[in-house]
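PROTEIN DESIGN WORKSHEET
SECTION A - STRUCTURE
LENGTH: 246
TOKENS:
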């Protein structure tokens, strides 16, 4: 398989780290963003100790200006971005009748605004070069909704709306655009859910456990090889059977 340049946003987080690791193991040159330099560099050192070189670019994905700057910095260090994984995301869980405008805005701007902010600077180059892979990390809760997540579910459902439009516009340019919708994975994001609530959620998962970040990285990598070039506009669920919509 040809070595490509891959930008994974939110690579320092639980799922992002597993995606970076898997793409690097497949020979791709990998990059991610950081917001806090000290945290970013410490994470980069940890990856280096595993034998994985990760290029870092500063940037907040909720800003269009940062998205552009981040992509240009990765291009400067590694060359054109050929694989983009829109993975960075946050939660601000609360029932809607208590939700503040800030909690709505933060989630929409970070989880959905980011797909514009980071994809827009890479799309023209991918079209010119006639090859690209764009993968959105959405969520089971964008597919089924979730109590306490009107902001998050709206953003995550929106990500797949973006996928299926971009997939149509770019199919003739050798670019596939797909979504991975993870179920509950044992990262900091899920561990922040109160234990009692979390236990009730796990009880609804047919496999009887949380997923692992690597199980999501496997699903992401599925879309990358040339053999996957007929697969575009898909939404791949990886959720232990918790939601089986079709
Ligand atoms: N269905 C029905 N009722 C529910 C419910 C559910 N799923 N969850 C909570 N309730 C009920 C409670 O039983 C309680 O009822 P009573 O008042 O009758 O006792 C009531 O809702 C509590 O409502 P409040 O408005 O007072 O809510 P709260 O402030 O206690 O907290 C919450 C509510 C923040 C939503 C909390 O339940 C929670 O954190 N839930 C988990 C949300 C979740 O799944 N987040 C996922 C985070 S990880 C992630 O997002 C990754 C991913 O993509 C999968
Ligand atoms: P995580 O461990 O909390 O990691 C989130 C990552 O996103 C971190 O690297 C974080 O960087 C980055 N990030 C957040 N806001 C950012 C911003 N404004 N600009 C740039 N980077 C930002 O979360 P995770 O569990 O790995 O989740 C990764 C993605 O998967 C998210 O989109 C999430 O919604 C989705 N997802 C997760 C689950 C799950 O169960 N965990 C399930 C379905 C979908 P900082 O260190 O700078 O904060």
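SECTION B - SEQUENCE
RESIDUE ASSIGNMENT:
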């Amino acid at each position: 398989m040809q070595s490509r340049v891959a930008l994974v946003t939110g690579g320092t987080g639980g799922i992002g780290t597993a995606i970076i690791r898997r793409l690097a193991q497949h020979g791709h040159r990998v990059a991610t963003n950081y917001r806090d330099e000290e945290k970013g560099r410490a994470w980069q050192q940890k990856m280096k100790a595993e034998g994985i070189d990760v290029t870092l670019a500063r940037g907040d994905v909720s800003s269009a200006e940062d998205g552009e700057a981040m992509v240009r910095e990765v291009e400067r260090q590694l060359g054109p971005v050929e694989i983009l994984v829109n993975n960075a995301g946050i939660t601000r869980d609360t029932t809607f009748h208590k939700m503040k405008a800030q909690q709505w805005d933060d989630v929409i701007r970070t989880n959905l605004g980011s797909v514009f902010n980071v994809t827009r600077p890479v799309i023209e180059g991918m079209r010119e070069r006639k090859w690209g892979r764009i993968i959105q990390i959405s969520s089971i809760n964008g597919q089924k909704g979730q109590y306490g997540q009107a902001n998050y579910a709206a953003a995550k459902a929106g990500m797949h709306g973006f996928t299926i439009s971009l997939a149509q516009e770019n199919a003739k340019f050798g670019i596939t655009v797909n979504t991975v919708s993870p179920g509950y994975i044992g990262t900091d994001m899920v561990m922040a859910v109160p234990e009692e609530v979390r236990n009730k959620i796990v009880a609804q998962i047919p496999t009887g456990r949380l997923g692992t970040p690597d199980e999501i990285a496997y699903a992401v990598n599925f879309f990358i090889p040339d053999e996957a070039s007929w697969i575009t506009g898909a939404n791949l669920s990886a959720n232990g059977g918790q939601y089986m919509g079709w």
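SECTION C - NOTES
Strands lie at 5-8, 29-34, 54-58, 83-86, 132-137, 175-182, 235-238.
The chain has a mean pLDDT of 98.
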